[in-house]
Protein 1
Amino acid sequence: MRINNIFGTKFKGAIGKDMIASSWKGKEYVKAYTHPSNPRTEAQQEHRGIFARAVETWHKLKLCQREFYNRVAVEMTGYNLFISRYIAAVKDEREPEVPLIVSWKPEDAGQAQGCTSSVFLGQRLLFSLRLSEGGGEIALTRSDAPYEFAFRRGGGEDRVRLSADALVPGGSVTLRSDQVGIGLVLSINPP
């Protein structure tokens, strides 16, 4: 929103220390700046504490965990998605979900040559795995499952589904594609 004065100067936001340019329902106006209040109610302090813990948790996440949220987020950042989910979980008296780190490696390194895999959430590409590298890490959440692993070799492609039930911390699962001729071992690391 921009306010033009009689001299043609455009204003947006704060105008000095005493005024602010704003709009409401498409009507532009200038109003006196009011210093925002800082309520110290018990509810506000509790919310600030939850928010602070959410931010602290975000900063402790590994790169692949943050990358997961950045790729899952729609019309917001991964950071905002994580924070909003964390706060909602605490307010619903649930344990906030932190993405599980999933280590992957081909079942047989010889099978990996010329084979690639991509991890999808619906139609959204989350991760591309270079199976010839022999292994790596991605992050997934149980709440967003199921995921699809698309295995490709030459012109062939096969999709294998990974359900939430398979994402057991401390467990492992092998996804196999007989069509492409590859097995992928996923080890779900405990949080």
Note: The longest helix spans residues 42-60.
Protein 2
Amino acid sequence: MKFNFISENESEEINNIIDCLQNILAIPEGSIPLNRGLGLKWSSLSTVPEDLENDYATDLMEKVEKWEPRIEVVAVEFGYGEDGQATVNVQIELTETEDNEEEDEEE
């Protein structure tokens, strides 16, 4: 499965976050000792596309919320190539942190 991350904000921080997300989402859940919750559930990959999309998007959003609090997932859309390859388009936004709020107040 291929992931495309879409963000209106192009910055070094977003690129760093996307690298982290690529790592997190490539790990099968339960495969890291002492951190069994890291990664996505792969059990839904063998289901029909409608169930796959819902289960996978829900799991993805929960894991991003838990493991990458610097961003929020705004939308998850699936596309399928002629070869059957699934592509997940994930729209993300930076979350408001205390640092971001302080910068906004200074301006």
Note: The chain has three helices and three strands.
Protein 3
Amino acid sequence: MNIMIPIMRPLLENHQTIVGLCIGFIFGILLHKGGVTKFDVIVNQLRLRDFTLLKVMLTAILVGGVGIYALLERGVVTLHPKAPYYLLGILIGGAIFGIGMAILGYCPGTAVGSVGSGSAHGLVGVIGMLIGAALYAEAYPLLKNWGILTSWLLDPEKQTWPTLLNIKAWTLWPIMAGAIVLLCLIFELVVPAKKEQ
């Protein structure tokens, strides 16, 4: 690992766009291989009939979190948590996101992944997301002036889970790993994973 860090740093600093595209491409392949670029998998997750999506997301959070903190300790990355947190904006944004995901049957990442696997309705969804993002960018000054995006301040400090819980990151990750494994086992007991035919 110590040999890799000097090689990785200039690659990440000087070629961020290329590295980002490569990582995104690999991410899309993994989403497709995990089966979460399929409309039925997403919709059945929302109907609580198939927990494949939630299992993939929880695993990604764990692997990504451990990876980020490992890179953080090596000095390859720095954290920039988004703060402050305004509850009203989070609730409205979450509701819009959830409604859109339920109607389309994809979240942004899985929609792009579905386009890569040939989905026409995924493409319509991606176009809709881009239009929605453009409309939000245009409406942002007005929403900010109305106070919608700055109402109900939760925490003015920049927080991460380790700092919020006042524990070390490497204490948190094993606890999270155990909780995720337990949740996945419970999901498997409640709704066993469907075998490919």
Note: The chain has a mean pLDDT of 82.
